[in-house]
Amino acid sequence: MFFAYLCALSLVVSETADMSRGFPYPPDTRPVGCRKYKRKDFANHTVSIIIPWLAEKWEHMEGTMKAILHFTPDELVDEYIWISDGNADPKEKELKALSSKVKVFAFPERQGLMLAKMKGVEMATAPVIVFLEAHVIPNKHWLQHILHRVVVNPKALAMPTLDQIPQENWHLYHPMPPGHWRYEWNFNLVYTNPGNVIRNDKPDPYDSPGTSGGIFAMRKDWFQQLGLFDAGMREWGGDHMELTMKVWRCGGRIEIVPCSRVGHLFRDPSHRPYDVDVNTVVYNYKRLAELWAQDHLDYFYKMKPEAVSMKLTDMEPVKANYNKLKEELGCKDLKWYLENVDHEMDWERDVLCHPHAPAGHEMKCKGRLIPGRWTVTQTIPKDEYLQRKQAADERNGLIPRHSGEL
User: Fold this and answer.
1) Domains, the chain, ranges and CATH?
2) pLDDT, tens digit, for every residue of 32-72?
3) Taking Cα atoms as reference points, which of 149, 321, 118, 144 lies closest to residue 220?
4) By the 8 A CB rule, do 160 and 257 touch?
5) pTM above 0.85, yes or no
6) Among 134, 156, 114, 186, which residue's Cα sits nearest to residue 349?
């Protein structure tokens, strides 16, 4: 879905095919130069690892847990919190058999991903929360590198580089090409590399305009101060956009850490083990747009015209939280975000098109969509991107980073 850049890559077979460890053993995909951290580098910070799940295969859940245990220093983890979102069998016995630090909470009925995550945060006892998904293979030293970023900057949301486990085969592994996460004007998540200027063959963390939303570390108190998540969002979709808007626009930052690698089983809708109603996702997007894109709503509605007639409910608590954040944290508007963080999204306002617009409509796409994209037939030129980025860096008092340094 997000991975036009992966098409030319060859599969990398796991080093250990016999599964003697109980999970597919990943190749080391870290760049050269990743440092090794000592316990003192974390200033007594520990983590609670939160894993919400719905209708997952036990093979994936067990492999996820065994890989975490194998590659994660035990002294850095207070607990593993598995949140069962309405599963008939919450797998409590099986999960607790894997580690004495496992905690299981089971909703009797499906509540949705956002409420499941919020329950995990409520249960967490460590100062740092780490969200994972129930179909991942963390790699060597994955936790130390994202945890250190949160120690250095308490308002950082630190993401590992997500390597790809193909949906057809849990035992294979793609190294992720360089890029960052961001959004189109229909609020769909995409993974891009503007002008191929981003490199992840260096160990240094780099900013990302957005987060994929399911695999990251941040301080619990920062998560709670931001009022995450909107409890009125339904089932699935939109949490990554809410995270992105609140973190970046309210004083934080989102970073991708190339030295932290987590293999993720990326699945298209046909391979997803649960149903996702498209209208529900659009409803969630509209809730976000009405607050966080107030000054640019027309662009969202051009890409999501079906959202115009949708009626929103229970918006008063969300509006109150939004106004509180603006007052207490000085949250910036979307114009600031476009000018200083997501230069691609800003540029794309002038080239938007809708592939399903009727013939002759002004929004009808006049060429082929860019692979992996839904709203554009062209992307920002490299020089234009670098000029915008350099101008933003200078406005914010940063040393401009050029293509060889990203």
Assistant:
1) 4-27+36-271 (3.90.550.10)
2) 999 989 888 898 899 999 999 999 999 999 999 999 999 99
3) 118
4) yes
5) yes
6) 186
